[in-house]
Design a protein that fits this description.
The protein has six helices and seven strands. By secondary structure, the protein is of the alpha+beta class.
């Protein structure tokens, strides 16, 4: 997908500015968003480069008109079990255009195609309707809810768990 690309350290300032501009939008759902710093953003980029070098998944910038508007990626890859999970976030002003749905579809295609994995999982806070709409739109099956599974500041979010299996993805594409 031409609207995705790996991060480089030179992206740190732009990515941090995007996070800062969306802090109120992201902080209720992402544990790192409330306190993210420029230095933390640089370290995040270094970490995702190490992740890719270790063949443990990758993170990609979501682009709109050559500007970073969000992130999508694999948290890690469990090669022995043929599974992975995907996470994502998007600038509030770019929601509703299908950008993230296309980006996640591209990653699922990669997981089942290039990597020949068997299972892809997505977890989203139960109350985060926009984030939950993506796996639902792509035909993922909701498998249940992990109660108080993610701590955000002093509160805990319940997480809806969605999964897609390779045979279902192939069948859904025909």
């Amino acid at each position: 997908m031409r609207d995705l690309r790996p991060l480089d350290e030179s992206d740190a300032h732009q990515l941090y500015q995007l996070i800062a501009a969306n802090r109120d939008h992201l902080a209720p759902w992402l544990p790192w968003a409330g306190g993210q710093t420029l230095e933390g953003t640089v370290e995040y980029i270094r970490m995702v480069r190490r992740q890719e070098a270790a063949n443990d998944g990758f993170q990609a910038a979501v682009l709109f008109e050559n500007e970073i508007v969000g992130m999508v990626g694999f948290h890690s890859v469990n090669w022995p079990h043929g599974s992975t999970s995907i996470g994502y976030w998007l600038d509030e002003g770019h929601q509703g255009r299908g950008l993230m749905t296309r980006a996640v579809r591209t990653l699922v295609d990669h997981a089942f195609g290039a990597w020949d994995l068997h299972r892809v999982e997505i977890q989203a806070a139960v109350d985060n309707r926009r984030s939950r709409a993506i796996p639902e739109r792509l035909g993922f099956r909701e498998e249940g809810v992990r109660r108080e599974a993610e701590r955000i500041g002093e509160r805990y979010n319940d997480l809806a768990v969605y999964a897609m299996l390779a045979p279902e993805w192939v069948q859904g594409k025909t």
